[in-house]
Amino acid sequence: MDNIKYNLPEKEMPVSWYNIQADLPEPLPPYLHPVTKQPLVPADLAPLFPMELIKQEVSQERYIDIPEEVQEIYRQFRPAPLYRARRLEKALDTPAHIYYKFEDVSPAGSHKPNTAIPQAYYNKKEGIKRLTTETGAGQWGSSLAFACSQFDIELKIYMVRVSYNQKPYRRMTMEAWGATCVPSPSPDTGSGRAALAADPNNPGSLGLAISEAVEDAAPRDDTHYALGSVLNHVLLHQTIIGQEALKQMEMAGEYPDAVIACAGGGSNFGGLALPFVRDNLTKGRKTQIIAVEPSSCPSLTKGLYAYDYGDVAGMAPIAKMFTLGSNFMPPPVHAGGLRYHGMSPIVSHLKKLGLIEARTVNQLPTFEAGIQFARSEGFISAPETNHAIRAVIDEALRCRESGEKKVLLFCHSGHGHFDMAAYEAYLSGKLSDYEYTDEKVKEALSCLPAV
Ligand SMILES: *Cc1c(COP(=O)(O)O)cnc(C)c1O
Known about the structure:
Bound molecules: pyridoxal-5'-phosphate
Shape: globular
Strand content: 15-25%
Low-confidence stretches: none
């Protein structure tokens, strides 16, 4: 019998996260303070994050224990299955072997609870009563809402307005888990009011919603802020994905030639890929590691590697990353989770060192891939995930031409059950592609901070 999925028993779920900082050939550039432009010290972050997360952000320890309480909630849905995409392989008539790590099984339907749960846990332990955050497509907001419900923490979510309007069911899931959700820009903060004064129809952006959430949290003793991607501790928590996948690939008796994931802020990509980067660095493996981003928001492929603000108002720490400029307003494509101007410092650093590569795909081909996946594998994928699927299908079709039996592994980061309006728009011919021009690159990059 040919196996279709590989399930790890609960007792084999990894009990530590993998920290790539221990194995980097060159250390990460430090974060800078948004006002003084000096390297950040831990105390600078204390108004926003609990000390355990600040320590993880800069830790050089190779493995960090997953707390028992976090493991217990992880086990509600982990280990996540690894699928062999036999039906898709057949539909493509490819000699490639395609595997995917299936993160749809979490309560929120994506990989994001992998970090939401430990973030809520460490805040609770430090006595925090309330969290604020931003959300794009609503995947992160609903993941943190779920995690906060587990630890009895109040949550206020600033949701990018274009997604708030496109995805009412996401807002309802957040409310079902007990969170409050407002469209950003909102009249509740100074940065929101400024954006609305300049343009009452401002569609919002992740960078702007971050400003609002940070501005809300920073002055309050009972409130911290939580970020769902980009930061080192987020990628650290997500490495549970890749560590499980390594064990499951071993069960399948294969090792990937290429590891592929979509990249918005870089967390599901990092989560799957970092343990494989480790094997490249320390075990002489030569796995190809590929990040896939939208043509409309191509930070890794067309951005500048520079110090930039993480948010529009310049309140969040300055990070060295591939960026399109913090004022960049990406077009309202349906992959809301990929509409961020920057890229995780870890992923950016790996790109700069030539340890990973990046590709772009346009909106229409991603939905075409998502439909092909749905009609072969059955699962309806998030628009973000469709970017990874597009790249995998392209790779598998190249294998059909060349006859190569490559082993491809990708992250199925989440389901698309709340994205059916986007599918409807695609199927009725109302979606368009967005190309990012070099002129727009120049314009967006004209506002980088002088450091
Ligand atoms: C948020 C999200 C992404 C993009 O975020 P990353 O931090 O780049 O992983 C991708 N897929 C899904 C399903 C998401 O919810």
